[in-house]
Amino acid sequence: METSRRTVLAAAAAAGLTAVAAPGTAHAKEGGAPVKELFGTLADGTPVHRWTLENGGTRMRVLSYGGIVQSLEVPDRRGRYANVSLGFDRLEDYVASSPYFGALIGRYGNRIGGGRYTLDGREYRLSVNDGPNSLHGGAAGFDKRVWDVEPFRSPAGVGLVLRYVSADGEMGHPGRLATTVTYTLTGDGDWRIDYAATTDRPTVVNLTNHTYFNLAGEGSGDVLGHELRLAASRYTPTDATLIPTGELAGVAGTPFDFRHGKPIGRDIRTAHPQLVGAQGYDHNWVLDKGTTRAPGYAATLRDPGSGRTLRITTTEPGLQFYSGNFLDGTLSGPSGRTYRQGDGLCLETQHFPDSPNKPDFPSTVLRPGETYRSTTVHRFSAR
Ligand code: BGC
């Protein structure tokens, strides 16, 4: 952990300020083994567990259902904790209607146009769940599956290994896909995600996590005052159904230019056709670093009020910045407050949407004998 963060946390502990926890929920020891509890039961009787992890001053709660990050608690510049991720208190709410709060997304993050693609001369028709398109893996994507969860404590930190085997043909995709996702909280309080997958037939894969961040705390209002920096000179404009046109457009001189950092709200109401079509930001930025072996710099998000800062590095070539446009005040979080448009935002590291139909985009094809790998690191600090 950075020394300044240690000092702030020690001072906060001395002042009696500790991580927030709803009454009756499990606690994990800082740096200790993850703690498991029953969270709920699905209609078919399957139990869903919740794991609590704490390390380096960061605490998170993860569900076996959808690999959902139910809460993520980090300190502000004075050591005061808040849950900076949108979510629910009850399993029923996640099952009934969740806009992918905190969830693992697969087999294909974001949209595949027309819900179909051709691979090696064969056409595959997918589960269509977003107008004419397949979104986030289809009607029952990885966000709605119960994952096998194994806790660990290692020199890398404390964490969970989540496993799910997607059957050949599931949601229309070919190949039995064996997926392993590792969530690690490092000694520095970073939340690291390592994704891996193998297949027995050629298929496409694009995994991500759909956490909605509000660094002032969930339920505290909108994120329009958060400052965002994106290390991307280009983005992929979309058609009316949010499928990329195929063009890589320059951000210079447009509301899409976040290269030098700016408040999210500064240009969000510009009548730019791309912002009108998506009701805000809901686009894939083409990261200047491209696909990398080691995680490279992608984005920084900062809430000036609390000082909480999130820095994202990734091996992926793209990042979907979604400004919570479709939150409409009908869902409410653990704070008991409703979520309205812009009350949280997603920064989803990924390959570009609709890549299976865009031969010029970096390929998402995975073949037998190969291993899909992807890593994203979320670094929290407060300044
Ligand atoms: C997509 C949005 C979609 C949202 C679902 C985002 O990743 O880009 O278009 O509405 O997920 O909540």
List the topology elements.
Elements: H1 3-14, E1 35-41, E2 47-55, E3 58-63, E4 69-75, E5 81-83, H2 91-96, E6 104-105, E7 111-112, E8 116-119, E9 122-125, E10 134-135, E11 148-154, E12 157-166, E13 177-185, E14 191-199, E15 203-204, E16 208-209, E17 212-213, E18 227-230, E19 232-236, E20 249-250, E21 262-263, H3 273-278, E22 282-287, E23 296-302, E24 308-314, E25 318-322, E26 331-332, E27 338-339, E28 345-350, E29 365-366, E30 372-382
Antiparallel strand pairs: 1-2, 2-3, 3-4, 4-5, 6-16, 7-10, 8-9, 11-12, 12-13, 13-14, 14-30, 15-29, 17-28, 18-21, 18-23, 19-20, 19-22, 22-25, 23-24, 24-30, 25-28, 26-27
Bound molecules: beta-D-glucopyranose (BGC).
Beta-D-glucopyranose (BGC) binds at residues 99-100, 110, 242, 282, 320, 322, 326, 346, 348.
Question: What does this protein look like?
Answer:
By secondary structure, the protein is mainly beta. It has one domain: Beta-galactosidase, Chain A, domain 5 (Distorted Sandwich). 6% of the residues lie in helices and 39% in strands. It contains 3 helices and 30 strands. The strands form 8 sheets. The protein has a 9-stranded antiparallel β-sheet, with no helix packed on it. Strand 26 (331-332) and strand 27 (338-339) form a beta hairpin. The longest helix is centred in the first third of the chain and has 12 residues, at 3-14. The model is unreliable at 18-24 (pLDDT under 50). It binds beta-D-glucopyranose. Beta-D-glucopyranose (BGC) binds next to strand 25 and strand 28.
